[in-house]
Amino acid sequence: MANRTISQSHNRSISHEQRTQMTPTNSPILELRNVTTLFPTRRGAVRAVDAANLALYPGQILGLVGESGCGKSTVLLSILGLIARPGRIDSGEILFAGRDLSKLPDSELRKIRGKEIAMVFQDPQSTLNPVFPVGEQIRESLRLHNMIGGGRSWPFDRARTTQERKRVLEVMAEVGIPAPEARYRAYPHQFSGGMQQRALIAIGLACNPKVLLADEPTTALDVTIQAQIVALMRRINREHGTAIILVTHDLGLAAEFCDHIAVMYAGRIVEIGRTDDVIERPQHPYTTGLLRCIPDIGVRRPIEPITGNVPDLAELPAGCAFAPRCPVARPVCSQGFFRLLPVSGEQADAAAQRSGEVHMARCLRLTGYRLPASEAPTNGAAP
Ligand SMILES: Nc1ncnc2c1ncn2[C@@H]1O[C@H](COP(=O)(O)OP(=O)(O)O)[C@@H](O)[C@H]1O
Ligand code: SF4
Ligand SMILES: [Mg+2]
After folding, report:
1. Residues 91-123 pLDDT 10s
2. Which residues line ligand 2 (CB under 6 A)?
3. 87 vs 72, 74, 76, 82, CA distance in Å?
């Protein structure tokens, strides 16, 4: 985004009041319960996603934020059953419309992928097929899911082909591809990066999915084009009620766009909550660190990068995985396992916790642990 100052919630999909009214009556459209995804490696199994709990309600936009290597894409690929073997979903449930996607055979998943749950990837250049016209690639999505229907099989049913073409032009116009008629037959290389990303979104939207999974959809684009793509996704969310999970390493972007934010670190969700809570009252030092990395136009302050790197998931440090980088770590942080706990300390039902309605974090400072006097913090970072 051009101006990186984090704004209030005016840009997000629905207001907190609307959300509060929606949550008790509606069921989540997509729910992850204790999902763990493993990749076997020579050095042992890597838990790219470790016991993740998330719930997405109709019309909600959830941001999944963290540095590269934290497991964000693996969450999305797990939802769609696209984990490359020998990787696997080891445990947990992924509930969509009453069915556990993690237990469905691929033949059933194929009917859901692209039709009910669509995914937009980071790099349109490697996702679009260079040898097919863009319009045909959008039409392929319709045809695959038999969205238009018809008698004779494709490509001999001319009435069906005409209707599919009509829908493609409609969706191309909707995502802001100018002169869709003329561009239907254009190849991906004839599109700019922003237009290619619009084409990918058009493929995603062709079947009116209920859920859009967007994996770093603006990372490869210029800031002005990023802003256009974000505005486009927001319009889609408002006009069609499409629920969106936005994966991004950019907490500023998530703050602008999302109703709720889940912060991931080393395969685990370390903080989740309503966007305003997470941005204005971050509870996990990693979230605070990410916030300090956001340039703020108009306020002259140095960017403070988080020191060190995301750990190798095959060799996670004991205890809190963030401890080696955490500026307020205590010796005890490397010993215990810290659960995701409500920040307020109050009990909350599981669905509210998974959806981010309850502000939760995973840190020693929320456990009520009393530090020995010798370890008492002097910098105000009391547990
Ligand atoms: N195909 C794979 N084989 C082995 N390990 C993988 C594979 N995909 C992901 N991983 C592991 O999972 C971690 C998280 O990956 P990913 O979900 O792509 O992170 P992110 O999207 O947050 O950058 C990687 O750092 C790597 O350790
Ligand atoms: S548990 Fe300890 S090391 Fe981990 S984030 Fe909290 S204070 Fe830092
Ligand atoms: Mg990724």
Report:
1. 999 999 889 999 999 999 999 999 999 999 888
2. 284-285, 320, 322-323, 326, 328-330, 333, 338, 363-365
3. 15, 10, 14, 10
